[in-house]
Amino acid sequence: MSNEPKDSLDRRLIPPVICYPTKTLPKPNLKLYSKARKSAKKTDEIIVPPRDAIHFRVKAGQFFRITSIEGPQVGDLNLWNSKNLREAFYTGKTRALHGSHLTKGNQLWSCFPYLRPMATIVEDTLEWYGIDSFGASVHDVIGTRCDPYTQKLLSDQNYHYCCHSNLCRALSTATGKSIDQIEMMVHDVLNVFMCTGFTRETGQYFMKATPVRPGDYLEFFAEIELLGALSTCPGGDCSVTHSNNSAVCFPLMIEIYTPDETALVNGSNNRWTSPEINSYNQTHGQ
């Protein structure tokens, strides 16, 4: 270990600076969404079986809800622009703009060069959880998804029903393409209902038993046309382990709600429209 400098305490006491101040970040119109939600009718329901994944489609202006229905279960969510699968959910930028864990009012942002909101969280029944004494919170955008490659690296096992593989199968079904054609399109996830943080001692990513119970849900407003895939993680409630067959797992439910056609009109009589893609000219200094 290198020698600690004499001014080490002063260096540690330097205050932090927020990388991306968000005062100028466009805010979602939650009042408008709330009004539209009151008129919305349920138009679809999908059950995601334990240890598996299912794809779903949501039109811009619809709502979709992920609900715990039988027992504590976490899920891994991927989102794509259904009309252009190259535009996908970008957890890193979402984390930089909103924080490591998401809740009501936060948005899920798409990757470069598009960088626009894909969905807005409009309801979160676990918002009460906050940050616990371990530094953990719910619905993280820091974990990458359990995958067969890390499993092989750490245990020399071929495990096919982890979230990455589940999402690959779901996207393959949605697109009609083989997994080797679409695997690179599966991306880091929103860990729905998962309770996670970083250890203070080593900075390692940890999980603990989710506080979710049947009836809890996370609900979104679709800002653009979406193709989604949700995996019911083989970790179950993530209280012990994941990526094996030992955890008790439960299904999750996805519901789609469609508002009345006139509901998404604001006070100026302007109808809501999807956000435009980022206006940067993409010349990159050339």
Task: Name the shape in a single word.
Answer: globular
Tally of individual domains: 1
Q: Low-confidence parts lasting 5 or more residues at pLDDT below 50?
A: none
Distance between the termini: 44 Å
Helix content: 10-25%
Radius of gyration: 20 Å
Structural class: alpha+beta
Number of helical elements: 6
Q: What fraction of the residues are assigned to beta strands by DSSP?
A: 25-35%
How many distinct beta strands? 13
- Report the order of strands and helices: HHEEEEEHEEEHHHEEEEE
Question: Major beta sheet, specifics?
Answer: 7 strands, antiparallel
What's this, in brief?
With 286 residues, the chain is of the alpha+beta class.
Structure description:
Strand 9 (190-198) and strand 10 (205-208) form a beta hairpin. The protein is built from six helices and 13 strands. 38% of the residues are buried. Strands 2, 4, 5, 8, 9, 10 and 12 form a seven-stranded antiparallel β-sheet that branches. The protein has 286 residues and is an alpha+beta fold.
What's the topology here?
Layout: H1 8-12, H2 30-39, E1 41-48, E2 53-58, E3 63-68, E4 75-81, E5 84-88, H3 91-98, E6 107-109, E7 117-124, E8 137-140, H4 148-155, H5 163-175, H6 179-182, E9 190-198, E10 205-208, E11 217-222, E12 226-232, E13 252-258
Antiparallel strand pairs: 1-13, 2-12, 3-11, 3-13, 4-5, 4-9, 4-12, 6-7, 7-11, 8-9, 9-10
